[in-house]
Amino acid sequence: MHTAADTPAQTPVIALFAASARRDALSKRLALACVAPLQAAGAQVMHLDLNDHPLPLYHGDEEAAALAQGSLPAPVVALQQLFAQAHGFLIVTPEYNGSIPPLLKNTLDWCSRANPADPARSGVALYANKPAALMATSPGPLGGMRALFHARDVLGYLNMLVLPQQLAVGRANEAFAEGKLIDERQQKTVTAICQALVSTTRQLGSTP
Ligand SMILES: Cc1cc2nc3c(=O)[nH]c(=O)nc-3n(C[C@H](O)[C@H](O)[C@H](O)COP(=O)(O)O)c2cc1C
Q1: In this predicted model, what pLDDT tens digit does every residue of 2-44 receive, in sequence order?
Q2: The ligand 1 atom nearest the CA atom of 144
Q3: 102: Cα separation from own chain's centroid
Q4: Which domains does the chain have, with CATH numbers?
Q5: What is the distance in A from the centroid of ligand 1 to the CA of 72?
Q6: Please, are residues 94 and 26 in contact by the beta-carbon 8 Å criterion?
């Protein structure tokens, strides 16, 4: 991972993840197609699979019980420590009933909780003033467009600086070959969004 000498102006660390734990998730295919463009734009990519970070469904009693033992639940702390290292985020979301999947909200909510055992690497400061880019996928024609707007609201509430550029890939089950989007125009949009995210992260100099 990045060293203390790294700054966003040199090598921004971008946390990249799909908001689906499903092994063959369409959103994971689009996240994968973002790795090379992010690297080409000069980022160090922290490519996360939320299947490797199974968090319980947020429950206030469970949080209180964990805090009574001194810390948030271990899987939450592990993910918070990763988010803390990120200068920016790229999130690819599916659409569930016109909105974001509970996995995305649950992940963002748990990590937004302060951990008295590690205040510097927990809570809303993990998100505040960090740039974020959003993309969506769906097997349907609209590509999860409605989830993008809801995700934008949630990230904005967390004081993230959400890029105006976004992409919704419809008919996503037919959209990829060899880890890339088949449609050149869409792949160019991916590249443009990745470049904008890295350049914004550098300009803002947001520090984890
Ligand atoms: C509860 C639920 C609600 C869904 N609602 C929508 C929807 O509103 N719009 C849409 O395009 N697809 C919807 N879908 C279909 C998903 O886009 C599809 O299952 C997709 O493959 C899930 O994303 P993933 O492949 O990244 O796991 C829904 C799926 C589920 C399970």
Answers
A1: 443 456 768 999 999 999 999 999 999 999 999 999 999 999 9
A2: 11
A3: 14
A4: 13-204 (3.40.50.360)
A5: 30
A6: yes
